[in-house]
């Protein structure tokens, strides 16, 4: 669907993107993460034809964005980081204009406006001027204009930033639904858990380069597997030696009387160590409330991958 | 199609804006008020006086209005959502120019028309004379405004901030617009040449603005 090849962009003397290459398959959800100033918005603006002075190329359905025209622009739906609309317009006026400019016939525009405002829960704001809307509602209007003309590719710059939890869930479900219908979604975010939740593919951008691209599972494989087990028992465990003696355990950290972090000698032994721990505790007549591998979050994976604590 | 749609949209936005509302009412009111307050213009028809006043103040207001509008929208990245759609970039500017120009022109026409009516009633000028006087006043006014408006568009495109934009308008576009009076001042031209000069300068400024807007990364 989208192919980015050798993207290079500098602002005066400051290089922002350095030989950036990646592909986005049709119908997938691509989560694009990176610290502030890493070049996410620049990438997005190049993909949407807003920045035209760059090296390399981006093709969308085989068409280079250097030949920006009607076919390409009607393929793309774009939500900027901050939705800015002409303040004198109402929500309806904004959507109507964008729908018509995107090539929708008059009759179709009204139908689609009804649909998207319904989906996004903003029907009641349609007659309201955009400068009277809250930030979250404005973001939804931005999303509405992006999906109004049923684009095949949606490019969304931090779409869930500033949304309340309810709206965040709404957006995430919407992404999943659009993806199921065949729409390709490329979105950036600082909210790593949002990417972790819904992205099929994750791209980590750092220092103008793609540091990682692949699935969440592949990222975990690459960065490091779980070497820690969390244990919670019903009764207090009298001493740590019971756990320390289990083969494969390298150390035990007591968090509370009945809660422990068990460190493993080798990651591959995790299932065996869990099994031995359960047996050892049951043999002592104790009951287990929970035992599970301590999975790394995307945030810790991301930081350990870039290894610069966010200063990529 | 996109130019017509954008023009209708801009017109819809401008004619109801507070600034335009002030012009619709303010220009005729200001012209009449000044006429009755200032003593030493006795003998000059109200229509001529209004024409001069409107062309001067109206032109300045037009260019300030359009510069502030373009710069604010540029700063807020309003154009991004237009530019990713299948439209010609310059159509955004042409639509804005046309809408503002039309609105201010109608406001000026109302002011001059009211003055002509007043002249006819109070001074007893005959209709033929008044129509002729009104025609010249309107032509000068429209010509000055066209240049002011197109200069405002160009300044709006290249200016880095609202402050710089307004300063450039105050010191630049008004002086530039006075070029239309050259044919009359030098005595080598006819009244119709005022319109011709105005069209030429406006087209040149708009072409420059469009070219810059096409090349510029907003």
Number of domains of chain A: 2
Q: What gross morphology of chain B would you assign?
A: elongated
Gyration radius of chain B, to the nearest Å?
Answer: 18 Å
Approximate helicity band of chain B = over 70%
Question: Could you name the CATH class of the largest domain in chain A?
Answer: Alpha Beta
Q: Strands of the biggest beta sheet of chain A: in what spatial order? A: 6-7-8-3-9-10
Strand content of chain B: under 5%
Which CATH-level-2 architecture of the largest domain in chain A? 3-Layer(aba) Sandwich
| pLDDT < 50 runs, ≥5 residues of chain B | none
CATH topology of the largest domain in chain A: Rossmann fold
DSSP strand content of chain A: 25-35%
The parts of chain A where pLDDT drops under 50 for at least 5 residues are none
Plain-language structure description:
The complex is a heterodimer of chains A (312) and B (218). Chain A has 312 residues and is of the alpha/beta class. Chain A is 35% helix and 28% strand. Chain A folds into two domains: 2-222, 3-Layer(aba) Sandwich (Rossmann fold), CATH 3.40.50; 225-295, Alpha-Beta Plaits. Chain A has helices at 40-47, 70-73, 91-101, 106-120, 135-147, 165-180, 192-198, 216-223, 241-244, 270-283, 298-306, and strands at residues 2-11, 14-24, 29-33, 55-60, 63-64, 76-79, 153-157, 184-189, 201-206, 209-214, 228-233, 249-256, 259-264, 288-293. The mean pLDDT of chain A is 88. With 218 residues, chain B is mainly alpha-helical. Chain B has one domain (2-215). Helices cover 82% and strands 0% of the residues of chain B. Chain B has nine helices and no strands. Chain A binds chain B through residues 48-53, 69-70, 73-74, 76, 78, 80, 82-86, 88-89, 93, 97-98, 100-103, 145, and chain B through 2, 5-6, 9, 12-13, 16-17, 73, 76-78, 80-87, 217-218.
